[in-house]
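Give me structure tokens for this 109-residue protein.
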Amino acid sequence: MSDTDIAPPDPIFDALWAADMPPARDPAFVIGVLERAHRRTLWIDLLGLIPAVIALGVVAWILSPAMAELARALARIATAPRFAASLAILAVLGGIYMMLHPSTEFGET
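Here you go.
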């Protein structure tokens, strides 16, 4: 027999080799690859948000004295008895509206 002659395939060996072959689509491998791709996209998106978070922090720091004064003014208003009564009336009216206009999903009009 020369090097160019190939023996016919043996069905017994074919069955044994087929049993050792990985499946055509490996779900664990596909999930692993997708997970790495999504994780990389998540990190890129998070790194893109860092400048916005820093800018908002600086703006909050600059506006903090004015916000403190506004918070004090709102605290004086919120402790007034008329404010509590008006909130109670609004809550009751909102409940009546929700009973008269039921919806199947939250936020549906």
